[in-house]
Design a protein that fits this description.
Blueprint: E1 19-20, E2 29-30, H1 32-35, E3 40-41, E4 47-48, H2 50-83, H3 95-106
Antiparallel strand pairs: 1-2, 3-4
The structure holds zinc ion (ZN) (2 copies).
């Protein structure tokens, strides 16, 4: 099937003014009105179909997940080292609060 000509909406099988997914190898073209959800455009205004947007974020999530695993391991090593020190101070978790204060000042 030649997707570069006579394209049809994947949802209603009718041609016309279609959004064509900019992802490599993705054959999806769809009417904005058929999507039923917000169309996603990247920084340069290219359309990406919900499937490719999901794929992109899923890949990002799994990359972040492996980062979380790594940093979690580092954190537990850090905490175990901390436990061995009898005079350790209470862990200070202030970063988030500071950011909230900052946001409140801006808003
Ligand atoms: Zn359609
Ligand atoms: Zn796509």
């Amino acid at each position: 099937m030649d997707w570069t000509e006579n394209q049809q909406c994947v949802l209603c099988d009718i041609g016309g003014n279609l959004l064509v997914c900019s992802d490599d190898g993705c054959p999806i073209s769809v009417h904005k009105s058929c999507m039923g959800c917000e169309a996603h455009f990247d920084d340069v205004g290219n359309f990406h179909c919900p499937y490719c947007v999901y794929k992109q974020y899923a890949a990002e999530a799994s990359r972040l997940r492996s980062k979380v695993m790594l940093t979690k391991k580092a954190l537990s090593t850090f905490l175990e080292a901390d436990m061995r020190d009898d005079n350790h101070p209470e862990p200070v978790v202030e970063t988030v609060n500071k950011e909230d204060d900052l946001h409140q000042k801006i808003n």
